[in-house]
Amino acid sequence: MIGIVTVLYNSAPVLEEYFSTLDIQTYKVFILYVIDNKSSDNSLAEAERLSETVGFKTIILPQPENWGVAKGNNIGIKAALKDKCDYVLLSNNDVVLEKDTIENLLKGHIDNNASLSVPKIYYWNTDKIIWAAGGYFRLTDCSSRHYGMRKPDQGQFDKVRQIGYAPTCFMLINKSVFNDVGFMDETYFVYYDDSDFIWRAVRKDRGKVYYIPSSLLWHKESFSTGGSQSDFSIYYLARNRMYFAHKHFNFLQRVRLYMFLAFHYITRDLKLLTKDQRNLLKKGLADGKALSKSTLGL
Description:
Layout (H helix, E strand, L loop, with lengths): L1 E7 L3 H12 L6 E7 L6 H9 L5 E6 L6 H14 L4 E5 L3 E3 L3 H11 L4 E8 L6 E3 L2 E4 L4 E4 L14 E3 L6 E5 H7 L11 H10 L6 E11 L11 H18 L2 H22 L2 H22 L2
Parallel strand pairs: 1-2, 1-4, 2-3, 6-12
Antiparallel strand pairs: 4-11, 5-12, 6-7, 6-11, 8-9, 10-12
Helix pairs in contact: 1-2, 7-9
């Protein structure tokens, strides 16, 4: 049994296609756990309506406030484990599945004795432009990168392989991983929570992550979006990058990161960000360092 966990926050526009493509899956032994983080739109009502139209079991868990992605995932993971699911599938709801996405992902997962597995993911509404074919950590700037991002699929990423990182946009996970690694770190709220989880699994040799290219998925992230960022993302990406680095990096790795951030600030941030955005960036970095002290004792 697979427990599919998806977290809602003002997700109403994407839910109908998400539910409908789950409903046509060739592999049907799953339960969908929907965690609504007190959406201000009609996400909860829409999820409840759609759950009555599909053939799979849906458990909806409304929350009294917006806990963030990490805690929302944890609520769903714990519910799935309590219901004795063998696997947890963390899933965005702004995705569209092929009819055999889950079947092929599970088959590749079992065949390769994987602990965690991900599909090949395309940008939605493109001619198979890749969003992620697995990924890797980049220590220099404390970031993660996707293989194949923005490249047309010409078969160059068609081999199953073990990888060092993947986004949890659609990730199948053995239930034993949560015993070995623990749950999502809720301190992050949003951003870097998936990186932290994968780091703990891979870097501490507690799990093998595999990329399964026969499993295909479409992600409704616009291919045309540029480098502009909201104030929210500027702050939380800066805060959580610093928290992640203090949690997982050694002294020399942190020094290298500080040098990169200083160089990036001088050469790019001063030109591309407004004064208010630069202040948010600096506040995020300072808050991340303070958070590391209070939470990790560093």
